[in-house]
Amino acid sequence: MVSPKIFLLRSWTRLNDFFGKGLVISVGAIMLICLAIALTAFLFLNTAAPRVLTITTGPTGSSFQRTAERYQKILERDGVTLKIIPSDGSAENLRRLVDPKQGVDIGFVLGGAAGEMEYPQLHSLGAVNYQPLTVFYRGEKRELLSQFAGRRINIGPAGSGTHDLALALLKLNGIVLGSETPIDETDFDDPSGALADGRIDVIFLMGDSTDRRVIRKLMRDGGVRLFSFTQADAYVRRLHTLNKLHLPRGSLDIGNDMPPEDVYLVGPTVQLVARESLHPALSDLLLEAAREVHGRPGLYRKQGEFPAAREGEFRMSPDATRYYATGKTFLYRTFPFWVATLIARVLALLVPIVLLLLPALKFAPMIYRWRVESRIYRWYQVLLDLEREALKPEVDAARREELLRQLDHIEAAVNRIVIPASFGDMFYGLRGHIGFVRRNLNEGIPSP
């Protein structure tokens, strides 16, 4: 009967014979194990770019929503679905972005909307456009906002970007809520009508209300003027989120010479803000879409001016910074989006494994030698145990016969070991020691 210890050693020897017939096979086994680990990780780790994005925009029918719809069509080319959620403006967009339960990935935010708050979980993908602030008024020409003191001024509803910026500008001119100057917060559907019938004297407008068609309509209505920020440079210095914008003479209507002189406006940029968890591949796709939509010249922007890597209230995304510096990565320039994503997943898993495997392979010869030597040395422990058993005083002839049979099993197992020629001296030394123990058992003479 074979003892359990000898049986386990014989089984282990067979496994070693299978996996350790040479250095090449040992190295191959290591690589196969690493590959198996990589494939397992590839199957269970989800590192692919998601196929659905959610953007929070602006009021229904606004320019922000129309811009998002253009993004939507562009992203569809690469199989990405863009879900559009209307909002009341930048303030609500920020609330949605910072709340993970809202499921929002990106949104449009006006410069200055963050105020004094910090949002470390949000990154900017860059500025995509200007949002000019226009001021229309009735009466004689004015060159300073301070000259509107005492007039009825509409600044839009509380919480809107127009409202907050108008308050900041008026405050710089000594006009605040509760002062002698009546400040109206009504959201007029028809600003020109409110000016024409005398309900208000001055109105601040931003967003879709600054569209050239709206401006032409307001300026055509009798007695309405467009205010030119002659102190635009000073405002930009005081409020760092503002930009100086130039509306050239005749740019709205050359034939009717509208406006009849150069006009200077101020306004923040529109930032495309994303959660920091946004996948790098989707960051590239969004910036490609933004470049297609906003890269053309407009009333206030030059060819190729947007999107732009402008550091503002939000940190620039590292992926966006890389995009502005070098464009799309090699994979996404060379392959279709989803093929490139798949390759990126594989590389993300295999590269670290290869980096670990290369230095590990330097130890392969040492590991191989240890494995071969261990196949020989482990049998010495069995021989020692067997010989100690034979030396016990109570061992009789029957027990000695049992020990000889165990020794036969040991010798048979050792003879099946496959050993490279370079380790032959160790192998034949083991066989010689087995013979030595056998002689002692046969003669019943204790070994010295």
Query: How far apart are the first and last residues' alpha carbons, in Å?
Result: 28 Å
What does the largest sheet look like? 7 strands, mixed
Write the element-wise H/E pattern from the N-terminal end onward: HHEHEHEEEEHEHEHEHEEHEHHHHHH
Please provide the count of β strands: 12
Determine the strand fraction and express it as a percent band: 5-15%
Unreliable runs: 18-22
Q: Identify the overall geometry.
A: rod-shaped
Q: How large is the count of helical segments?
A: 15
Backbone structural class: alpha/beta
Q: What's the gyration radius in Å? A: 40 Å
Average pLDDT figure: 82
Q: Report the helical percentage.
A: 40-55%
Describe the structure in your own words.
This protein is of the alpha/beta class. The chain has 15 helices and 12 strands. Helix content is 48%, strand content 14%. Strands 1, 2, 3, 4, 10, 11 and 12 form a 7-stranded mixed sheet that branches. It has a 5-stranded mixed sheet with strand order 7-6-8-5-9. Helix 3 links the parallel strand 1 and strand 2. It starts with a helix and ends in a 5-residue tail after the last helix.
